[in-house]
């Protein structure tokens, strides 16, 4: 476990997202994949499609909602990451998709809203 508070919050968000996706029938195959292009939060399989999941968690809405925090540069980086990961794992499904799970916490730290956006980023 890390002492970095941001990393702990990120880890908590990824656990919440993975639990949610598993309940939706996704099979989580990888977590926190670090590559030179960046990091993939979750990799899953959903109905024969390889899904790359960006998890965004925000503690309050002061800086906008979690879903609003994904920049165009991050979109491009996620596309590169997905393609590179898929190329390195030919045993996994060839159909790719990038989803976003955005979690907004209440002021008290409880899950306020969880938004799952399928095909959030064109690949």
What does this structure look like?
The chain is of the alpha+beta class and 123 residues long. It has a single domain (5-121), classed as 3-Layer(aba) Sandwich (Trna Endonuclease, Chain: A, domain 1). Helix content is 29%, strand content 40%. It has two helices and five strands; from the N terminus they run H-E-E-E-H-E-E. Strands 1-2-3-4-5 form a five-stranded mixed β-sheet, with helices on both faces. Strand 4 and strand 5 (111-121) form a beta hairpin. It is globular and about 45 Å long. The mean pLDDT is 85.
Topology readout:
Blueprint: H1 5-23, E1 27-35, E2 38-46, E3 49-58, H2 72-88, E4 96-105, E5 111-121
Parallel strand pairs: 3-4
Antiparallel strand pairs: 1-2, 2-3, 4-5
Instruction: Please give the CATH architecture.
Output: 3-Layer(aba) Sandwich
Which class best fits the helix and strand makeup?
alpha+beta
Query: Roughly what percent helix?
Result: 25-40%
Query: What is the residue-averaged pLDDT?
Result: 85
Low-confidence stretches: none
CATH names the topology as Trna Endonuclease, Chain: A, domain 1
Shape: globular
Reading off the top of the CATH hierarchy, the class is best stated as Alpha Beta
Q: What order do the helices and strands follow?
A: HEEEHEE
- Radius of gyration (Å): 14 Å
Q: What's the number of structural domains? A: 1
How are the strands of the biggest sheet laid out side by side?
1-2-3-4-5
Distance between the termini: 33 Å
Main sheet: strands, sense, barrel: 5 strands, mixed
Number of helices: 2
Percent in strands: 35-45%
Number of strands: 5
């Amino acid at each position: 476990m890390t002492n970095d508070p941001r990393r702990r919050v990120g880890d908590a968000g990824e656990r919440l997202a993975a639990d949610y996706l598993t309940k939706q029938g996704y099979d989580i195959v990888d977590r926190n994949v670090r590559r030179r292009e960046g990091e993939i939060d979750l990799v899953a399989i959903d109905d024969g499609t390889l899904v790359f999941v960006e998890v965004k968690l925000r503690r309050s809405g002061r800086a906008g909602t979690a879903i609003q925090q994904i920049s165009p540069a991050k979109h491009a980086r996620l596309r590169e990451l997905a393609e590179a990961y898929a190329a390195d794992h030919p045993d996994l499904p060839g159909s790719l998709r990038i989803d976003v799970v955005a979690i907004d916490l209440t002021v008290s730290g409880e899950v306020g809203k969880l938004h799952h956006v399928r095909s959030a980023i064109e690949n």
